[in-house]
Write a structure and sequence with these properties.
3 domains; four-stranded antiparallel sheet; seven-stranded mixed sheet; alpha/beta; binds iron/sulfur cluster; binds tryptophan; single chain
């Protein structure tokens, strides 16, 4: 199985996907002691992660950390896109430094948009809605890929440590794939890692919240981050921690510097073997690996390294379209767009595929199936904040007390409130949009 970030298929079996790609389960112990956990975390919509522990620790210990995510300005923004922004807003309230890439290079390279078109889409659709959803451009960093010199430079430079075979294995590229498309995952890697450059906040934990279709890009970014490190920190066979220098220049100096840092971390029982380019720590335990690695990363810039920490990620499920397939801007009847009028949304909701039985009579007898119902998904993902209220719907549906007609009406009403609120806020955002644009697109 391969995950293709540019295909339009949706996934049925997230657990299998997780196992196959070595994604970790986003289990309750990861989020339950975070401040006021977001509904998308509580309800299992975010189902997987890589290295979220690092982020959790940064949150709990109030260390500096960053979020970088991006959206491709192609088509109109719908409820599926809203999820990432909802997550970002939550993490911002927990102290994350927020970066949002407008992936115009990717839209150009993979979807055939001109940069001029993506500019209009980004401005009128995406940035307008981000601001309406509550992202404050003054407290977050928006940028366009095509206008960000450091991101583009990084994309080019980081390409040094990935080869064609890896790209083919990861993305299935072939002889007819255009070069801009081939390069676009490196631009995304540039997006993800640039927040650890000194000018953008320096080496620190970074979270990339995305849909699972983006996992190939995450793996690439993590591999590239690792490949550029000068130190490697691992457990050895005999249960020690080994610190290894991966390069052949400045080996002695790098070992000296590592030794000094290990001492300040209170590791004193060290065995250095310069010929092996190694230091062994006799007293360290497995859960010290990450903190040692992070401390050593900070040494690397003084030796012309980046010291990038591997970025962490979380993965959310896709919201099902109202027609039962993937929610997609190319199928307007499947999607509720953030710029839909309440009437348009209502019509789509009333026509939606539910988990209801064939007749009212039947449904009173057997109950509905909320787990297979897109209306219930709307409540779960977007419309109902209170867990007990949501549970109430679930129960009365399965018991056959709630009928789909009434349920849809309720969804339509709540959707109306959400859409009108956004409409109002988009109007107010016009000036801010112009400012973002003036600042980043000149
Ligand atoms: N590839 C993403 C998409 O298709 C957009 C994107 C660009 C992105 N750069 C990113 C996502 C960095 C996460 C992080 O929507
Ligand atoms: Fe879905 Fe509501 Fe019908 Fe249950 S009653 S199947 S939740 S629309």
């Amino acid at each position: 199985m391969k995950i293709d970030p540019w295909s339009s298929t949706t996934y049925q079996d997230y657990a299998r996907l997780r196992d196959e790609f070595g994604i970790q389960e986003f289990s309750e112990d990861l989020w339950s002691d975070l401040p006021h956990p977001h509904r998308l975390l509580r309800r299992g919509v975010v189902f997987g992660h890589r290295d979220f522990e690092t982020i959790r620790e940064a949150i709990l210990k109030k260390k500096s950390w960053a979020i970088l995510t991006g959206l491709m300005p192609s088509g109109r923004m719908h409820l599926g896109h809203k999820m990432v922004i909802d997550e970002v807003l939550y993490y911002q309230s927990l102290g994350a430094d927020i970066f949002i890439a407008v992936a115009d290079i990717e839209a150009y390279a993979t979807r055939g948009y001109s940069l001029e078109e993506t500019k209009h889409l980004a401005m009128n659709e995406y940035i307008a809605n981000y601001i309406a959803l509550g992202l404050d451009p003054k407290r977050s960093h928006f940028y366009f890929q095509s206008k960000h010199q450091d991101v583009k430079d990084l994309a080019f430079l980081l390409g040094k440590k990935v080869n064609w075979s890896q790209m083919v294995a990861t993305y299935g590229f072939g002889g007819s794939t255009n070069m801009a498309h081939i390069f676009s995952p490196l631009v995304q890697t540039g997006d993800i890692l640039h927040v650890q450059l000194e000018n953008y906040g320096g080496i620190r934990p970074t979270l990339v919240p995305v849909g699972v279709d983006q996992d190939p890009h995450i793996r690439l970014s993590r591999d590239i981050a690792q490949a550029h490190r000068l130190y490697n920190v691992t457990m050895t066979k005999d249960d020690k921690i080994g610190v290894f220098v991966k390069v052949d220049t400045n080996v002695k100096e790098l070992l000296d510097a590592a030794e000094k840092t290990l001492h300040t971390l209170q590791f004193t029982d060290l065995k250095r073997i310069t010929d092996y380019k190694a230091i062994y720590i006799n007293t360290a335990k497995e859960n010290d690996v990450l903190s040692i690695d992070e401390a050593l990363a900070h040494i690397e810039p003084s030796f012309h390294g980046y010291g990038f920490l591997q970025p962490s990620s979380t993965y959310h499920r896709f919201i099902t379209g109202l027609t039962g397939e993937k929610m997609s801007s190319s199928k307007p009847e499947s999607a509720i767009f953030l710029t839909d009028t309440p009437q348009e949304a209502e019509k789509k909701i009333m026509n939606a595929k539910t988990g209801g039985a064939v007749s009212l009579q039947e449904q009173r007898k057997t109950g509905g199936k909320p787990d297979e119902c897109v209306i219930y998904e709307l409540f779960l993902y977007h419309l109902i904040e209170d867990d007990n209220e949501l549970k109430g719907i679930y129960m009365s549906c399965t018991k056959g007390e709630l009928m789909c007609g009434i349920c849809k009406k309720r969804a339509a009403e709540q959707m109306e409130r959400l859409l009108l609120d956004l409409q109002e806020k988009r109007k107010k955002a016009t000036k801010q949009i112009q400012e973002v644009l003036r600042e980043h697109y000149s």
